[in-house]
Amino acid sequence: MKRCTGILLAALVLACVGASSAPVSRQPGDSAAGPSGISRDPIDERAAELESAVRSDPSYPQLRDDLGRVYYLRARRALDEGRFADYQADLGRALDEWIESARLNPESPSPHTWMGIVAVYQGDLKRALRSFQNARRLEPRSWVAYTNLAQTLIYDDQLSAARRYLMKGQRRGAPPVVIELNEVLAAWRQGDMVEARDVFRSAYALNPEEVNTWDEAPVDDPIESFHDFMAYCCENPACGPYLEDECREMQLSVARRQVADETLLQELRLEMDRRRRLREIYRNRKDLKVEIAEPEATP
What is the CB-side half-sphere exposure of residue 267 using CA atoms within 13 A? Predict the structure, then answer.
């Protein structure tokens, strides 16, 4: 199955927005500018295209996955800009699309991968690991779930387990640069800066483009050195908070999500609803071994 992800969240915003197997195309003469020639936002434009495609073919799971991904990217941007209501709305839309994708194709790992990505961003590694394990169970031959699990375990300071999953991902065909970027994180986490720098140089030599598209947050400045890599992680709310001590040792500031209390409450409500709806989908599919935590009382 096509992914924008290699290492966890591995794509720039524009790369993810532009990469899709959905049957959507422009008409001759169309451009990214509106009638007045003013450039339109590429994420909003892609969302509109996918929304139109979903209306035309609502039973195609890949379209649902892609639309959910774009809503998630838009939600992250809204939160970065302090637009909490827009963040809540687009996060809810993203989850709706992935849950519908799971309903249409309960055997697909993709919705669980994206829900795991959201959990990492929201700071819930336990939930993220459960989602990535579900993706692994649904497609055990794919390397994607193994490297996602490995990175999440590095964030959780479970380095031995992370390296076991990296080995399994490698045996299933994970690109060497993906393995090495995870090894960079692990060495940095262990405090072995010599190893981290050496492995980063090797990863960069293998594929500079992959190094610069390894996470969902946009890269403002090119990642060309290990210091650039560390700074990028520390400035990314989906990475920096998990390596806070390591960032501070390098005198790098750590970016955190700035979330209002009401927004946190809405995230909790969405999570409870997500669990309830997924349990309804998988209740009669015990053969798939998908694990969904019991929904709690919605506040």
Answer: 18
Whether 11 has a pLDDT exceeding 50, the answer reads: no
Taking the alpha carbons at both ends of the chain, their separation in whole angstroms is 37
User: Distance (Å, rounded) from C-alpha 232 to C-alpha 82?
Assistant: 21
Among candidate residues 52, 53, 44, the one with its CA nearest the CA of residue 14: 44
Output DSSP code: residue 126: H
CA dihedral for 65, 70, 74, 77, sign (positive or negative): positive
Contacts of 270 (CB under 8 A, 6+ apart): 88, 91, 92, 95
- Pick from 199, 123, 118, 189: which is nearest to 157 by CA? 189
Nearest C-alpha neighbor of 118 from the set 89, 98, 101, 103: 98
Place of tokens 């890269």: 219
Q: pLDDT per residue over 234-290, tens digit each?
A: 999 999 999 999 999 999 999 999 999 999 999 999 999 999 999 999 998 888 989
The tokens for 13 are 């915003």
Tokens 């290699």 map to which residue? 6
| 25 alpha-carbon distance from chain centroid | 25
Count Cβ neighbours within 10 Å for each residue of 89-110 and write b for 16 or more, e otherwise: bbbbbbbbbbbbbbbbbbebbb
Beta-bridged to residue 39, according to DSSP, are: 33
